[in-house]
Amino acid sequence: MFYDTGRCLGSMATPNKLRERTLDPLWHILLHEKGGYKEVDIPGNGRKLLVTLSEHYSEEYHWRYIGHRSPPSESLWRWIEGTEHTKYWLSSPRALRAPSYWPEEVEVMFGVHVPEPWELANAVPFCFPYKRENPEWYGHDVSTLISFCCGLTIWEISKICGINERAVLSHMQSGAKKLMSIPRFKLWAMNLDWSGITNIALQGESREMRSRFMKDIQNNPLGLKKRDVDKAMQSIVFKYGVESSMTPKRIEHRPIHKHVIICEPR
Question: What is d(CA 191, CA 255) in angstroms, rounded to the nearest whole number?
Fold first, then answer.
């Protein structure tokens, strides 16, 4: 699909351009930069394409992703060659490698349930159920947050978007706040271990449906259906299990997508 460059996709997501709402948040930020082409062709969500581009410009092969990759289009090559900051970032060791920490003013927005940038970069938005119209995570603020998690510095984001660094941090704070307002994301961030918990959710539903819900929430809360989470939160027992300290934490990291593309910090 073709996307304009040199402007914010957020302002382009009119009813007849809903495809912009499903594009990788990292591309949402990168396409702010003007390059050699006004319009570029990006197949799918485009994150795998960035792996190919980074390997080309850095001449290093850090990733072990063996799935299908679409080759970059001619328009994409020309656009990148005309960029300054995107091209430099793709050639740097920071490309597609998560930072090891959050800026302090952003970290506090998550409260006590702070995910690692690496976890967030490999989970949002790809673990959410696909929704073409108005996905909960959509927006320039979340895109800014995710782009930082993918290795762009605050300075680089400011230069690509043409804003100051204080504005970038403000967008990241807004993105964290938005994500924490989504019940599925909050459950994911809490990283609870439901493996030993009985079927306490969806009271009134069949045993099979309740068992499936508990299995899904253990696998990855981000993949839950919104209506099921809303109904589960109506259960006093389930809500207590979430909000109290009685439910144990997972030992391992938060669930992420099966295709890990963003590398861990060095």
Answer: 8
